[in-house]
Structure prediction request, 270 residues.
Amino acid sequence: MISVISIINDERKARQFLRRGLSLQNTKLELFLVDNRASIYRSASQAYNQTGVKASGDYLMFIHQDVFLRSRNWLKEAEDWLSTLSDVGLAGVVGMRKPRFINQLEVSMRYFLLRKLGKLYLWFRHYGRGNVVHGHEKAPWEGSFVSDVVPVQTLDELLLIVPSKIFEHTKFDETVCNSWHLYGVEFSLRVSQRGHGVYVLPCSVFHDSTGVVNDSYLQTLMKLIEKHKHEKIINTTNGLCLTKQILTKLLWSPDLISGRDLAKALTQDS
Prediction:
């Protein structure tokens, strides 16, 4: 059985997407809807950790209120896929694979050039995996759709599934992720470091949002980079991170710098 946990701050959205999708399911589930309309919780990590310990399912599914499960068999199919994975530490529906490059200069320059040419969608098509339709236009996500379970480096927070035996000893990081961002990315990296697999399942969802990168997101990102600096390269559904703050700030800057400036910063940092 899957225990479904969601934080609700907009009941209309929850009824339109999450509740409607769950009402169609043809298998047993346990449901926890965390009412945060009064801003009781200061972060998703805090709300999920406090609620997750109450769950009794074999798997805990942390899902956004504006996600719609696009099949009556969604939960059953997800459980079937999860049962084939002996090492699963975390699963989701959209994530990014880690680039295999010689060094940070090579990977960052390729990412930079795609961004400069307005072709960053090619980055997500190559490294992104997930069967997600999103936004008001109901457009397919730029990543590649999958028909089988795929290992990834990081998962997006819109839907995360944790085996209960993993959640017993591994919770979301309330210190680094003390807002509403990147808790899935951080959890992905941590369970992977402990020898568990991180996977995208071939299960389709609709997500009413396309995500947002704001000051709170960037503040959390800097803390995450510092905690996981041994990774060198962290690929997320919002973009590429190098685990040196100045380099990620340059790559994510709204004012695109020159390739020469980026290469200079990389050389000076090494």
About this structure: The first strand starts at residue 2 and ends at 8. The chain has a mean pLDDT of 90. The CA atoms of residues 115 and 254 lie 11 Å apart.
